[in-house]
From TrEMBL:
Record keywords: Iron, Metal-binding
InterPro entries reported for this sequence: Pirin (IPR012093), Pirin_C_dom (IPR008778), Pirin_N_dom (IPR003829), RmlC-like_jellyroll (IPR014710), RmlC_Cupin_sf (IPR011051)
Annotated residues for binding of Fe cation: 81, 83, 125, 127
Boundaries of every Pirin N-terminal domain copy: 44-147
Organism whose genome encodes this protein: Micromonospora nigra
Protein name from the UniProt record: Pirin
CDD domains: cupin_pirin_C, cupin_pirin_N
Keyword flag Metal-binding: yes
């Protein structure tokens, strides 16, 4: 699981030592993601399945894509499809993915890169492995997170952010036992590159066997910890977790998690995808590729899509060489 790493984490800035009076967040809910298939048939884990929307707000949906080692000719993607009313955040840990949309955004992301597409008023897009990966096969692993937009921003013009892995803010723990990659928002004063409408924080944390992390977390944010790989515990109550599980946390000012001293051979460390944000607290009407506030708005989105008002599929797929497209 390469993502972005460093040879020596001890050269990085470090999290502060938290005072003994810190209120650590309890684990309120622990769930295990069911497996399924997306697009043309690539395997996913549905990380938020069965979790109430009120626990997820401002997030809507999270898929862990893979981890799968494709044979030549096997890599798959999605066909052209519409979105309106939210943002997709696609993070690639291993492998590569191409994106193209009808608003002009697009590019190729690979180990540690993120594509942040704000669908806003609506567009069509396609995601697929590049031709060289289809030809050769290889490892593919990533996530796609859907972030809700507040009512006032749902019909904003679409935009696209290309975030290279090297742009993430990197820091470690006081003892150097973990690598923290801040993709968006802020952790202990270190800000990630992602630009967001709703105040959120997204970070990918790799915890070495036996190490513990005390991560400061904004008290007004929710806190969702998803296990990408490995085994460990979450919360001061040390709830056991493993690959494919989501821990929903209660109120507090910090998160605590620990990697088991002994890890499985295919997951040498505990890898976590951690999300939090300021709840929007607005009605959610979600069906298929649209996330709106009311049923009438969903009907309008489908009508606009069918009438071609969300864009027209180009005659030919435009090749991209990495990170091209408008930035916000």
């Amino acid at each position: 699981m390469p993502a972005i790493t460093v040879d020596n984490v001890l050269v990085l800035p470090r999290l502060p030592q938290l005072p003994e009076t810190t209120a650590f967040r309890p684990v309120r809910r622990l769930s295990t993601a069911p497996s399924g298939y997306e697009g043309e048939g690539f395997p996913v884990r549905r990380a938020f399945a069965g979790v109430p929307v009120s626990d997820l707000d401002p997030f809507i949906h999270l898929d862990q894509m893979g981890e799968v080692d494709y044979a030549p000719g096997e890599p798959k993607g999605t066909s052209w499809h519409p979105h309106r009313g939210f943002e997709t955040v696609t993070y690639i840990i291993d492998g590569a993915f191409d994106h193209q949309d009808t608003h002009g955004g697009g590019g190729t992301i690979t180990n540690g890169d993120t594509q942040w597409m704000t669908a806003g008023s609506g567009l069509l897009h396609i995601e697929a492995p590049p031709e060289h990966l289809v030809t050769s096969g290889g490892l593919f692993h990533g996530t796609q997170l859907w972030v809700n937009l507040p009512r006032a921003a749902k019909m904003n013009p679409p935009r696209y952010q290309d975030i290279r892995g090297r742009e993430a803010a990197l820091l470690t723990t006081p003892d150097g036992g973990a690598l923290i990659r801040v993709i968006a928002g802020e952790v202990a004063g270190h800000r990630g590159p992602g630009s967001t409408f709703t105040p959120i924080t997204i970070t990918h944390v790799t915890v070495q066997p036996g190490a513990q992390v005390d991560l400061p977390w904004r008290p007004d944010f929710n806190a969702l910890v998803y296990v990408l790989g490995g085994r460990g515990t979450v919360g001061t109550e040390r709830r056991p977790v493993h690959t494919g599980q989501l821990a929903v946390h209660g109120p507090g000012a910090a998160l605590r998690f620990t990697a088991d001293a002994q890890q499985d051979g295919n997951a040498p460390a505990l890898d976590l995808y951690i999300m939090g944000g300021e709840p929007i607290r607005e009605p959610v009407a979600h069906y298929g590729p649209f996330v709106m506030n009311t049923r009438d708005e969903l009907i309008q989105a489908f009508e606009d899509f069918q009438a071609g008002r969300l864009g027209v599929i180009p005659a030919a797929r435009v090749p991209h060489t990495g990170g091209q497209g408008p930035r916000p």
